[in-house]
Design brief:
Elements: H1 4-18, H2 41-47, E1 65-66, E2 79-86, E3 98-100, E4 103-107, E5 113-117, E6 123-127, E7 149-151, E8 154-158, E9 163-168, E10 174-179, E11 194-196, E12 199-202, E13 214-219, E14 225-230, H3 245-252, H4 261-265, E15 267-268, E16 275-278, E17 283-287, E18 291-292, H5 296-299, E19 311-316, E20 322-327, E21 342-349, E22 354-361, E23 367-372, E24 378-383, E25 390-393, E26 399-401, E27 412-414, E28 428-430, E29 435-442, E30 445-447, H6 478-485, E31 487-494, E32 499-506, E33 511-517, E34 521-526, E35 530-535, E36 541-546, E37 556-560, E38 563-570, H7 574-579, E39 594-600, H8 626-639, H9 641-644, H10 666-673, H11 692-714
Bound molecules: calcium ion (CA).
Length: 721
Amino acid sequence: MHARTIIKGLCAGLCLILLGCSNDNNSETETTQPAFADVDTARIAATSPGTEWLSYGGGYNEQRHSSLTQITTQNVEKLGVAWTYDLATNRGVEATPIVVDGVMYVTSAWSLVYALDAATGKELWVYDPEVDKSVGVKACCDVVNRGVGVYGGKVFVGVIDGRLEALDAETGAVVWSTVTVDQTKPYTITGAPRIVNGLVLIGNGGAELGVRGYISAYSAETGELVWRFYTVPNPNKMPDGAVSDAAFESIGNLTWGDDGAWVTDGGGGTVWDSIVYDHVGDQIIFGVGNGSPWNRTIRDPAGGDNLFLSSIVAVDAKTGTYKWHFQTTPGDNWDYTATQSIILAELPFGEGGTTRRVVMQAPKNSFFYVLDAATGEFISGKPFGPQNWAAGLDENGRPIEIPAARYGTELYAQLPGPHGAHNWHPMAFNPSLKLAYIPAQEIPATYSLDKLWKTKQVKWNTGSDFAGGLAVDVPPGLMQASRASLKGRLIAWDPVTQEARWSVEHDNAWNGGVLSTAGGLIFQGKLAGDFVAYDAATGAKLWTTNLKSGAASGPATFEIDGEQYVTITTGWGTLYALTVGLGYDTPVSPKVGKVVTFKLGGTGTIADIPLPEVERVVKADPFGTPEEQQTGMIHYARNCAVCHGGLGISSGVLPDLRWSDYSGNADAWQAVVAEGVLADQGMVSFSDVLTPEDIEAIRAYVVRQAHNATAQAKAPAPSGN
Ligand code: CA
């Protein structure tokens, strides 16, 4: 950390050129400067990502491209483990580590924050926000966290229960804590705060359950709210007294009807991941999520575009005043969020190679968009993966919808499904090769109108029938076959010509975030545990290692004492693992969460993780009529599957109900599901949406699935995994 003063001096010089120093603390004397995380806007803009990794996406442009060149295509095969740190969780880990002044700040499940010596992995402090575990039911996609922000000697974390907290970077002590949401509603925070000129920017999640989205800016110094921009109108279309009021009065309100579920359920539009700072336009550009409920027929029968759902929105960085927007999916109907990685870059266009500063995004809906960063003007858009919901984009970038995709009671088998053609897994961009690297996936879904829909509080609430097309008894091997049909790809995408330069097919759909380096490398993990380095120009696989865990997060790289390190957080969990599983056949997943850091010549190892032995014993004889089991199947699909796994088959992150002792005892089962006796573990009461008869029908279905699995286990094993 002795290098801090030198780096600081360098930054002070560069920042005069890049940004000016008026808003930052470079003029302060050395004695008042914090010893840890002494970061300001100029330093993030000037030095990252090179020797350090100062913000979630590496730097403000969020390209996740490092200028470090020690590790190259020629020597990457010598990469070995420098150190590992045990996060001791079996829940999802999605964080990109921040590295500043020799310290790594990283988060894990339940919003825990860790400070580690970045060269050795030695623990400096751990902060546990001690979240009430009943909040877990509000988390659509596991109790994950994608990382911290650092600024002015503080570490900022968005806590899953809606708090935004500032920690002393040296000690982990809480400096301030602010509740950013109405905690009676199903809001969560999983995204990383970004800090710009003394303002901490944070959004939230919850649009699967029913909330109204917004992004807020808080003072980094005091935690006071400075501005808030809502992404959907106030239900009565009256002003909120927020900076977004003018945008709704002029354009937003007109795109919503006067009734429909959005009025009571919030409308959605959560800003749960991508927030970038464009220093050229001094604007914040953020991605907005899906509608709530998903199904527009239920959400807003008037059938409008529903601004600013599924949009990229730009606002003034100081005031939050609206500047422009581009809506990727007007009238969202499919959970097609536009929250995915937003990357800023300069790209050459036309014969003369005129350079334009652009916004790039590959959102869930499968189109890659290039927009003008100053105005939001649509430059181009093309599908980067297979899709069957739109015939293309018109000249303004508006999708030309295929009518059947706007589903009614007829099932429509669609690509992409709600997992998206690209989800939160960070995309990267190499500014020399001018290629974007997309962690793409091919996960179809069947949508149909939920005929049983009614408003639910703090429960999944999509208006799409999750039981549509399912049968109580599934043929042996169908689950394995359907998993095997899902595809993941790493696509090197040319954003100027809008075509793939190369792509690599993966054996698991849920592939990880991407890191690009000036060493000509692309690093990417996979949920099955491989961590791979590719040649950025050709896609040739140059190095691979087995992390013995899942790897979905964005890797980072940094340099200490002349050595370049590559680091990644690992873990099972995340939405895909909960709902689809990993292909591992384990009733209980072990605590595989880790930080794993590599360097050239590293000789460390990653400890083997034995899978726990769990007896698969059915706890009751089959019971209930076929009709009751069918009813149980429908209620299971609608209420249980998103956490406990499709078709009753858990990935092991949360209990596999087929083998649960509770499944053998009707009274105990009712106590859990109706009365919520396990609420402190996240299993809250479902008595608001399920009758005692429904709950017993679910047990009948689960017990039948246990007997089916036992019978299938005795049959010859199907091929594949
Ligand atoms: Ca969503």
